Amino acid sequence: xxxxxGMGVVTSLGQGRxxxxxxxxxxxxxxxxxxxxxxxHLATTxxxxxxxxxxxxxxxxxxxxxxxxxxxxxxxxxxxxxxGDFAGPLFLAAPPVELDWRHRxxxxxxxxxxxxxxxxxxxxxxxxxxxxxxxxxxxTIADRLAERYGTxxxxxxxxxxxxxxxxxIQLGMEAIRRGECDRALAIGADxxxxxxxxxxxxxxxxxxxxxxxxxxxxxxxxxxxxxxVLAEGAGALVLESLESALARGAExxxxxxxxxxxxxxxxxxxxxxxxSPAIAAVRAALSDAGMAEDAIEYINAHGTSTPENDKMExxxxxxxxxxxxxxxxxxxxxxxxxxxxxxAGAVEAVFSLMTMREGVLPPTINYDTPxxxxxxxxxxxVMREAQVSSVLSNSFGFGGQNTCLVMAREPV
Length: 412
What we know:
Blueprint: E1 2-11, E2 14-15, H1 17-25, E3 32-33, E4 46-47, H2 60-79, E5 90-93, H3 101-109, H4 117-124, H5 127-135, H6 140-149, E6 156-158, H7 164-177, E7 183-190, H8 195-203, E8 233-241, H9 242-247, E9 254-263, H10 276-289, E10 298-300, H11 307-321, E11 330-331, H12 334-337, H13 344-358, E12 360-361, E13 384-385, E14 390-397, E15 401-408
Parallel strand pairs: 5-6, 5-7, 10-11, 10-14
Antiparallel strand pairs: 1-2, 1-8, 1-9, 3-4, 7-8, 9-15, 12-13, 14-15
Helix pairs in contact: 2-6, 7-13, 10-11
């Protein structure tokens, strides 16, 4: 059995578990106008950026590292594991990496002639340029984290779109179950709210353009939902075999009961209309946990606020849980923090565990116009006190990558 002994989180709501949880149950939004770069010609001008961090203006790579580092530091400290000697593998969910604009401009400035490809190639051969490329390699962030925390073996960096954070946790669980290690560090981090990202998602018609009142823009499951809000953040879990955690007297924060995944080959961005891959992922997670559908007491929804995803998630949940889904609380943290992409599954796993520990269900805010086609108890607008002992957390990503996690408050 896999236990959680440490948790860390950073979102647009703040740094650390305490600040995030206070804001989350208070129904406060972290979404605001973008000030990091010009937005005059962009359709969407709001996001859940983490502008309070020092590296927020240093590019996606630097910011993703800082987010991952802060979340990991909080999780490792809570687990009471020796800093620099974690003694277990690292699984990092991170966004696809490309040269940040500061790197591109630095490379361009190093060219003797600013209008020739050969000049740029020569500049790329310099030691300075090689350092820039090194900072932008996909595995660089994980390598730096592995060195800082003393994780063992080759650190794994993965990118499975919006399911990435949950996939990192799944890999950590499976490594412990196979007996390869006693503990693992699973992190999801994403600091890639850039102009390019906004343009790409806008071209897919995935982002909301309701910029006038940023805190009201993310409206999961509402009839007037119009797209997701891009955001940044990180979540980290210290996963440990229950035997190891008990032997060293660690506090058990929760139990990772099961995980399930299922690919969807219908479309690169759209979900299969019948919801069958999402249904299969939920059922696989329940089966892996050895739990029946009626054992789940709360669902942390993927809940992106896009017309199609919310409809598909309702279809999948109503298929798996039947009429009972009307009575199971299903709320979306993204109504407050936005969509943290690669980090979402890990961030929401932290919030799911805190939901069980604190006995409070975070609300789905901005739920002012119910969608009659989506009959769910979304914990509308105001948090609710409730003791729940089991949670399902959904992560459904572009490219047909679906991962679901089942968590419990205590060992069974």
